[in-house]
Amino acid sequence: MSFVEPLETAPGVRARMSKQKSRDTQIEVDLRRALFAAGLRYRVHRRPVKGVRREADIVFAAAKVAVFVDGCFWHGCPEHATWPKNNAEFWRTKIETNRRRDLDTDQKLADVGWLAVRVWEHETAAAAAARVHEIVLSRRPG
To answer: How many CA atoms lie within 13 A of 47 on its CB side?
Structure first.
């Protein structure tokens, strides 16, 4: 077993980071409400494809659409990403690893006929829902 050296972090930063939600964030909940109001039905926090250990935030199985709501900090948003000065190497590695995993997930899903749709946390729920709605309708069978 390897020992991981704890990061040097100010108590306020540590407290704030520990409270970050990984699921059911405000944008996720707002997006789900908007999609439901538009008449779409979906599954929440599911693995779209067996054997692919990646969980989507919203899944439309019939249309083979998996929606991922990505946090600007955690996934390196091109508009809002920040690179912390404290523990800079750790955070750069963490965020770049997340970005590579996102691309890998998108490819693994595409390889089996699924479409991964990425929604940034800064997007409005209405705009994201309109985009997802259009995609789901265009991919529904029949």
So the answer is: 7
pTM to 2 decimals?
0.85
Average pLDDT over residues 86-114: 95
Paired strand residues for 43 = 59
Strands 115-120 and 65-70: parallel
> Does the domain spanning 21-139 belong to CATH 3.40.960.10?
yes
Closest CA to 50 of 41, 42, 61, 39: 61
Work out the widest C-alpha separation in the chain, in whole angstroms. Answer: 56
The secondary structure element, H or E, covering residue 107 is helix 88-111
pLDDT of residue 19: 55
Give, for 99, the enclosing helix (H) or strand (E): helix 88-111
CB 140 within 8 A of CB 61: no
The domain ranges of the chain are 21-139
Q: What is the pLDDT of residues 27-42, one digit of tens each?
A: 999 999 999 999 999 9
Beta bridge partners, 46, equal 56
